[in-house]
Amino acid sequence: MNSNEQLTSMKNFYLIILITGSLLITSCASTSPDDVKVPLADDYFTLYEKSQTALRSGNYQTAIKQLEQLDSLYPFGPNSHQAQLSLIYAYFKVRDTASATAAADRFIRQNPNHPDVDYAYYMKGRINFSAEIGFFKELLSADLSERDATTARTAFNDFAELVRKFPKSKYAEEARQRMIFLRNRLARYELHVAKYYMERQSYIAAANRARYVVEHYPKTDAIPDALIVMVTAYDILQLPELSNKARNILKLNYPEKAKQVL
């Protein structure tokens, strides 16, 4: 925002404060003047600066209270958009996934053309990505590949939307790197399900799930094991044509792994 735009924004903000004060005074004409509290511009800037100081010091709960107050009392302040973006981040830092996602969705809905809207898309991905790998990952006994992949899929789609809409965003490259991790995670989950079907002798379901991995998650680390599931299941089902096709792909691309099904 250049100096002229800032000046215009400030003028508009003071005008809003003046109008708001006039309306409050008019609506409270029967009330004692001492009971009427008109929001002051100085209060806004003081509260905004306090919220940013709290953010910088890592005092996120305090920042949230101040930012929520700003959003409630001064929804059209000169730094209102930045305050809303800061609130997304603060919610994220205290692991309030629902509030962080709702705040990001709200910003996107209300400001689709804002120059910083890509940050809101990026934070949606970050929120779900962190929920996926878990702030408490060290407390989880189950392997990540065995956990439900719904959040991973949501995070992947969030990052994909960012990259699609804003390919030149400063957050796009990081989003792409996180998508690589998530693709491998999703592939391993599908492979886990395929192996689950194999253990229960549901060979058609196992082969179909493994084929899904090969077709939808190429170049992931789950591919060789998915091919092994396909070969094994097709052999049991006495489908030699499909078995040989999967075996040949395995031999060509993963010769060491192919030894397991020779």
Automatic annotation (TrEMBL):
Provide this UniProt record's keywords sorted from A to Z: Cell outer membrane, Lipoprotein, Membrane, Palmitate, Signal
Please report the stretch or stretches of sequence annotated as the Outer membrane lipoprotein BamD-like domain. 46-246
- Report whether Lipoprotein shows up as a keyword of the record: yes
Q: Which InterPro entries match?
A: BamD (IPR017689), BamD-like (IPR039565), TPR-like_helical_dom_sf (IPR011990)
Gene3D superfamilies with a match to the protein in the record:
Tetratricopeptide repeat domain
Q: Which domain of life is it from?
A: Bacteria
Q: Which GO terms describe its biological process?
A: Gram-negative-bacterium-type cell outer membrane assembly; protein insertion into membrane
The principal localisation class reads: membrane
* Localisation: Cell outer membrane
Tagged with keyword Membrane:
yes
Which Gene Ontology cellular component terms are annotated?
A: Bam protein complex
Its family? Belongs to the BamD family.
The subunit field of the Swiss-Prot or TrEMBL record says: Part of the Bam complex.
Q: What does this protein do?
A: Part of the outer membrane protein assembly complex, which is involved in assembly and insertion of beta-barrel proteins into the outer membrane.
What is the official name of this protein in its record?
Outer membrane protein assembly factor BamD
Q: Which organism is it from?
A: Pleionea litopenaei
- Its gene name is bamD
